[in-house]
Amino acid sequence: MSGVKPLELIKVRSEGKFNIHLITSKKDLDSISAIGELKSKIAGRVGKEELVYSVPSKDGVTVIAKFKEESETSYRFQAARALGAKLRKIVNSEKVAMATLVSLTADRADTLAVIEGMVLSNYQFNAYKTGDKGKPNKFTKLNVLAAGVSEGDLQELSGVAVGTFAARDFVNEPVITLTATEWSKRMVALGKATGFKTTTFDKKKIEALKMGGLLGVNKGSVEPPTFNILEWKPKNAKNKKPIVLVGKGVVYDTGGYNIKTVQMAQMKSDMGGGAAVSGAIAAIAANKLPVHVIGLIPATDNRIDGKAIVADDVLKMMSGTTVEVLNTDAEGRLILADALHYAKQYNPELVIDLATLTGAAARITDYYGIAMCADKTDTTALKESGERVYERLMEFPMWREFHDAIKSNVADIKNIGGAAGGNITAATFLHHFTDYPWIHLDIAGPSFMTADVDYRLKGGTGVGVRLLYDFIKHTYA
Ligand code: BES
Ligand code: ZN
Ligand code: ZN
What we know:
- The chain is about 35% helix and about 20% strand.
- By secondary structure, the protein is an alpha/beta fold.
- The longest helix is centred in the middle third of the chain and has 22 residues, at about 150-170.
């Protein structure tokens, strides 16, 4: 694997030189001798709001920290992660390699959320920065002094961070390097590092399978497509039927002949769904969850060339369904159609697809959450995971009118609908290729940041990795 490693997390029994005391009330200050006379001053600041107070001393630094009080669980964990991100910045700017988080009264989940905020915000993508700007963060090691938090907890958090960082790296890497073929190689490497198996179909095999959607989108590219199958199948798997995760892997979306004229930049992130699927399976494998999981990632770029598809073309998908292409920029659903059809052979317990599918979803959710549609399954548990990890879900029904909207005059269906509910039309299109319990997650909003917000840094966020990990662990492990 390339990229930076997550902070090393170590459970310790004593304080170090740079200590961060996570407090829950004024009383906690009594046991912190290093703050000396400042105690009453700091006590005066302890309230419901976030508190960060640094006290330098001869032999180190003592930071007093408390996260903002929130009554709802999802906001509470998020406040803890935001505090973690702020603390991480302080440690790194002090140019120390190691700090100790002392948490004596906060409960386990809150303490872990603070640590998670520190770990996730210490990510960097420096591959193309030269000189000082490309320097790795000094902060590399976090000691944890907290009775309630076990070594296993810290290991698990690190495993999920490895998956999240891998997903971020995949999104951040530009297409000049990360072609479909190169990405497949990197998925194999990620699998070797974390324990899952990867099988990659090349163009010949994709042709033999008649994946007309993937081949159609790829027609304008000089780079061949790939179809990637990731599998984590432990001997102790508790599920008989696999969970299948499908991810949109458009390594670059120019729009094709319906070229993106308003904004093309950031479309290297159009494989955020595939990145999330590979990152989640990496996290699941790294933590050896007893669940059989399969990932399907169709990968290609969407470009213009003499052979590229144009509006009015008709494609025959792997399922046999014919699709009238009325907009070459609605390409994600074309490649996903083949992957969703391919998933049928596994007799899956549940299929979840993740895709940066529509601008409509992004306009609804921004980076605050994910637009969801579902069929033949209850989404309660996934929604609960979404609240816990702060990758929240907004569910939309697929009303009959949306099905009517994709009827075609010349083929079975067309790849665009009417003006309303673009995210729902897209989901309705995908629904054609499913016959199993299915959840569709449109992550166009939260997959890429244009500004830092706490632990979500500019660039790929790895959204979906923590959500899928949490959901699969709580539901099937
Ligand atoms: N990859 C885009 C969707 C997208 C937009 C992702 C913004 C992230 C940020 C997708 O392929 C696309 O272009 N969708 C079109 C569909 C339309 C032509 C029906 C869209 O949403 O405009
Ligand atoms: Zn597009
Ligand atoms: Zn796209």
